[in-house]
């Protein structure tokens, strides 16, 4: 049986006095891909930011491997194996691809850091060969798809056990999306737990084990991907009608 | 010559020229002018780390220079402490001042941080004026001894010049060591995207505090040297106007560069002494330049921000890239 990796218990969070998340309960098991679905403004990205501490949690608790995270610094969480690939990527434009990747390894423990960094770099190069070709190029000069790959690659440099992906397909060409979701599948096979926020519900559920649907800061439904795909209300109300047969989105 | 070779050759030639300058210039005043250039280079390199790499604006760096100057002056002139100990403590006191300012202030960003440093600078200016028994108040602090290292007193302009530039060289090497390795990347990441830096596991607050302390320490060391070189200090030296001049050196010098602020510090300092440097320049013309110097600094900052946001360093990089592709 899989171990519980991440648990959110009644989490409330927001910006200033504006509460965006109104008591979220979620549980993510080790090694699974968990999709968070919902329309714009549902609070999906805020949820990821609340998990890593970029948005303060005003009530409830975020539990990682059984330990409650209290006022944990976001950078400390990266050291604890949680990496966020944010919407908008937050890359360092003037810095080269190699420098961006090296920064991702900044938090690795000093002992054995060089070897760990080389191993992580080799993995990123294998997953995204195009980044290896462009290592000396400033990040700002990459295409949108390559930037997304770099953002994921940078997160992988910290060797995370939990990867939080915010809208990885946003604004990308179908071919690039297929490549990125191929990497998500591979990471899952490697045992990386992934929480995936994605607008394209069909695509997300195709690659996820389980998922939850959010509406205005609340989880209104959760279950396995098959359950969510089969749920008529989910299909019509939250996910929209399918664009066609399976596979079209990818 | 390859760009890699140039990267080593240019600093080596510049270092050599700087080292032999007192041997080829007979004019003692000019040697003093270039000593002041060295003093400002130390501050500008520190501010270059803070502004050009970490993206933090300080309008209060003259206060750190002043803290170093008064610490050194008091310890050497009043307490007869060995110069080298007073010099090291001056850097430490300024660094401590940087730490005290950095911890609460670096939660602020942009204009708010600039305002906080400006307030600190004004506060320290008041302290320099009002703490009469220690600082000498508005009359200033007189009788500051020359630097003395292991019983050897440096009185001659050339000796003082080499001392100042020796410290400047060490400051540049320390800064270069920082920016070329992990800390430099962390600083640039904070400048590029704070959220991105946090998401990459960079301790953003720690980076900001460390670079602020280092920058303040450099300023303090420069102040200690200034006090020993000139022999007299007063609050009128460590004012907002001086802070703006230091910031101008960093802004005009440009981002992600140490050479840029050093070059800008050289140019802006020499601007003060155009009458000594330009033969035949009339006294009234030189006075006009000196009178409008703060305005020139302000104008230069505005022009750089508007037309060359990356400063001299970015212009140089653009030219180098053009050369490579052309």
Structural account:
The complex is a heterodimer of chains A (250) and B (326). By secondary structure, chain A is of the alpha/beta class. Chain A has a domain at 1-81 and 162-167 and 192-250: Rossmann fold. In chain A, 37% of the residues lie in helices and 27% in strands. Chain A is built from ten helices and ten strands. In chain A, α3 runs parallel beside α6. The longest helix of chain A is centred in the C-terminal third of the chain and has 16 residues, at 174-189. Residues 242-250 of chain A have low confidence and may be disordered. In chain B, a hairpin with a 2-residue loop joins β1 (148-149) and β2. Chain B has a domain at 25-239. The longest helix of chain B is centred in the middle third of the chain and has 27 residues, at 204-230. A two-stranded antiparallel sheet of chain B has the order 1-2. In chain B, α11 packs parallel to α15. Chain B has 326 residues and is mostly helical. The two termini of chain B are 15 Å apart. Chain B is built from 16 helices and two strands.
Helix/strand/pairing category of chain B: mainly alpha
Q: Into which percentage range does the β-strand content of chain A fall?
A: 25-35%
Distance between the termini of chain A: 31 Å
Distance between the terminal alpha carbons of chain B, to the nearest Å? Answer: 15 Å
User: Can you identify the CATH class of the domain at 1-81 and 162-167 and 192-250 in chain A?
Assistant: Alpha Beta
The counted number of beta strands of chain A is 10
Characterize the overall form of chain A. Answer: globular
Supply the CATH superfamily name of the domain at 1-81 and 162-167 and 192-250 in chain A: P-loop containing nucleotide triphosphate hydrolases
Order of helices and strands of chain A: EEEHEEHEHHHHEHEHEEHH
Return the average pLDDT of chain A rounded to an integer. 87
Low-confidence stretches of chain B: none
Instruction: Work out the strand percent of chain B.
Output: under 5%
Reading side by side through the largest sheet of chain A, how are the strands ordered? 6-7-8-3-9-10
Please give the share of residues in helix of chain A: 25-40%
Radius of gyration of chain A: 18 Å
Q: What name does the CATH topology of the domain at 1-81 and 162-167 and 192-250 in chain A carry?
A: Rossmann fold
Mean pLDDT of chain B: 90
